Amino acid sequence: MDGRRGAGSPDGRGSDGTEPDGSIDIRRYPPLSAAHQEFLLSLARMTLEGYVSTGAVPDAELPADLERALCDHRGVFVTLYSEGRLRGCVGCHHSELPLFQTIQKMVVSSGFQDPRFPPLRRQELESLRIEISAYLTGVVPIESPEQFEVGRHGIIMTLGGRTSTFLPKVASQQGWNREQTMERLCRKAGLTHDAWKSSEARFSVYETQVFHE
């Protein structure tokens, strides 16, 4: 994902630079500017406020000068915090919707559909803080967990029909090394702590740009 080639490179390319699967999107998206970030955070808050009041997602009007980047089809996670504590986190690795609409969908899911928390109440909005993790890359398969770089990559593990993921910031914030991250991925997926060592386990990585209120 940094342009390096070879079987061991983090972008999953072969030694000849080809993709491991022609259908995999390894596109790198341009970073969002300060103006993009400000608009998307304002949009996320407006969406929450509108949904609390009406139960519907409000329409968004895009500034003409920002429209192109806001219409990229990329993955995104939206995380909500209340008084410093996690209040919801939902996202997607791929989206058929433009970025701004994906963020609207994910902020509603984080606030009202995360099964770990009750639906958001109007009185919580004032203390709520919104964080957006917009994908800078597509999701890239890797051949081995050794290619996962703590602090740089988000990680996805799939095994036996179960999937779990951690955003890039999680492992470094928790002080986990690579093996500890893998063990916690397994537990998150409802698997034994060492299931990641199975030859059937599959891994992918991605990178994000994080911004918050």
The CATH class of the largest domain, by name, is Alpha Beta
Distance between the first and last residues' Cα: 28 Å
Largest sheet: 4 strands, antiparallel
The share of residues in extended strands comes to: 15-25%
Count of helix runs: 5
Give the fraction of residues assigned to helices. Answer: 25-40%
Spatial shape: globular
Radius of gyration: 18 Å
Can you name the CATH architecture of the largest domain?
Answer: 2-Layer Sandwich
What do you see in this structure?
With 213 residues, this protein is of the alpha+beta class. It has two domains: 34-135, 2-Layer Sandwich (Glycoprotein, Type 4 Pilin), CATH 3.30.700.20; 140-207, Hypothetical protein ph0010, domain 2 (Dna Ligase, domain 1). The protein has helices spanning 34-54, 67-70, 99-112, 168-174, 178-188; strands spanning 76-82, 85-92, 128-135, 140-142, 154-159, 162-166, 202-206, 208-212. The chain has a four-stranded antiparallel beta sheet, with helices on one face. The protein has a four-stranded antiparallel beta sheet with strand order 4-7-5-6. Strand 5 (154-159) and strand 6 form a beta hairpin. Helix 1 packs across helix 3. The radius of gyration is 18 Å and the shape is globular. The two termini are 28 Å apart. The model is unreliable at 1-25 (pLDDT under 50).
